[in-house]
Amino acid sequence: MKYPKAVSVPSVTGAVVPQPSFRAWQPSTWPSAPSKWEPGFVATIRAIFQESILTEINNVVADAGGNLEHRGYVIAIALLCALDAISSYGYGAKNGKQIPDFIRAHFPEPYKSHAEALLRLYRHEKVHSWNLFKVAILPGNETVAVDHGVISFGLLNFLDAVSEGANGYLKKLETDKMLQRETLERYRKLKGSAKK
Q1: Taking Cα atoms as reference points, which of 189, 188, 187, 169 lies closest to residue 179?
Q2: Cα separations in angstroms, 110 against 23, 59, 95, 104, 115
Q3: What is the pLDDT of residues 33-82, one digit of tens each?
Q4: What pTM does this model have?
Q5: What is the pLDDT of residues 94-148, one digit of tens each?
Q6: CB atoms within 10 A of CB 181
Q7: Residue 12: inside a domain, yes or no?
Q8: Domain residue limits at 129
């Protein structure tokens, strides 16, 4: 296999270091948090979700050329981590425990009754234990279903659900004072963790 001559990756800490290649939008490059909630701040959060999370996953799906048959597990991990990160803004960073509340509030209806199972069986078992046996992920756009006690869904359907959940959260963020307070607190914490 022939590799490109110049390969570089951005700092995983978010520290700004000279790089000749693409650098993801990390907290060290984010604008300062406003001192109090400003309506325009929703655009900043939207940009973080889109540019740093959802577009990245969509690019991987697009690179697969529509065939997720042997890429599903990796994409599923990325989607579950994305759900964890996105939900942490308005519902707290609670090692995933915020995910069910986020799903019930913002996901499409078919997923809402499976909110706890999505945390336990997908986020915990699949991401942290590499357990493939209690759940099923399909490579297409199949809706969430239960068959013989096994919850399944298509990756593309789940990608749409995560995107719809993020958009629903951002819409509610425009008016919900509690979400605004939690989001601003989470943003400040992440921004403050950045290496200069």
Answers
A1: 169
A2: 36, 26, 24, 10, 10
A3: 999 999 999 999 999 999 889 999 999 999 888 788 877 788 888 999 99
A4: 0.83
A5: 888 999 999 999 999 999 999 998 887 767 666 666 666 677 888 899 999 998 8
A6: 13
A7: no
A8: 39-184
Phi, psi of 146 (to 5 degrees): -125, 130
Rg over CA atoms, the chain: 18
Helix (H, G, I), strand (E, B) or coil at 126: helix
Q: Say what the alpha-carbon torsion angle 121, 126, 129, 130 is, to the nearest 10 degrees.
A: 140
Write down the residue that tokens 């601003």 correspond to: 184
What are the helix (H) ranges across the chain?
41-47, 55-63, 72-91, 99-106, 109-112, 115-117, 129, 155-173, 177-193
* Cα distance between residue 82 and residue 52, in whole Å: 10
**Stated length of the chain:** 196
| Domain count within the chain | 1
The 10s digit of each residue's pLDDT in 80-104 is 999 999 999 999 998 889 999 999 9
Residues 131-162: b if buried by 16+ CB within 10 A, e if exposed: eeeebebbbeebebeeeeeebebbbbbbbebb
CA-CA distance, 136 to 40, in Å (whole number)? 40
Lookup: tokens for 85: 């990160």
| Angle, alpha carbons 152-154-159 (nearest 5°) | 120
